[in-house]
Write the structure tokens for this entry.
Amino acid sequence: MEVAILRIGHRYIRDGRTTTHLFLVARAFGADRVIYTGQRDKGIEGEIREITESWGGSFKVVHIESWESTVKKWREGGGEVIHLTMYGLPIQDVIGKIRASMREKLVAVGGAKVPGSIYKLVDWNVAVTSQPHSEVGALSVFLHELFEGKELSKSFQNAKLVIMPQSKGKKVMKKS
Amino acid sequence: MEVAILRIGHRYIRDGRTTTHLFLVARAFGADRVIYTGQRDKGIEGEIREITESWGGSFKVVHIESWESTVKKWREGGGEVIHLTMYGLPIQDVIGKIRASMREKLVAVGGAKVPGSIYKLVDWNVAVTSQPHSEVGALSVFLHELFEGKELSKSFQNAKLVIMPQSKGKKVMKKS
């Protein structure tokens, strides 16, 4: 089952760190790729590409113009779209159903301004707590629940750098 | 059992959004307070205070000078300190033990530059995946695991704003 992330409305510079964190969380927690709208940011794209080259896997970042047509096409193609929002249904009530459906998942995550039209265009509006916090936090817990923690031991193919977990200190294995 | 977060080395402006997200995740996922070092940032402190006034609870943010003396005092007082780092032991292997101990928890989360000395000063170095991603993602999944998902339905006392979860759209109840 493919899992892609849709980041809506990236703003150059202003959202830099948050969007980078969001993309890295998407990769680390087992999503296949990120699609983003808003201003194109080659700096972030390069950063994520370098991380993937060093740390492995085949994670991809793609910039597109319209989130709306992406959402529509995804659903027309048989996939389902989950929008993470503090106003949605509690994740603990709906994750079982979302997990059980084998439809490919597009997980939409807004930034500062998400157009109100999105609520009706998606299959699910899901809240990771109904409190204001962070799209980075929401996405990480959502993926962690979707994959039931299996993502924590995911191995990344062709990694040049691999961490050997330690109780104290740092140990990184370099492969050439 | 008290759970506090220790954010090390905040940099004014540069870390603004990330630190704000981190503090909001700490609050939303059930921590009692945040202690932070680095540059004091009254803007963020005010922002978190306003959120707590509107959305309830008794979450606190405190700036301190030395993370080292805080870590030492916490342990001398019988509490345990958990440092979140990609180099640490996998969370899935250690969270059971951490959860089972009733010692008060201080969860240390670094920023760009965490001094190497921290690894030996804490009880646990814990990795939420051994991949580079985000301290915001790491903290949210750590707290979610620590509280076993119960934090998702936590209610916040004296909230002026309460969201009524909806499958489509937004609904906020205002209390006066």
Q: What stands out?
A: The longest strand of chain A covers residues 80-90. The radius of gyration of chain A is 16 Å. Residues 42-55 of chain A form the longest helix (14 residues). Residues 37 and 66 of chain A are 7 Å apart (CA to CA).
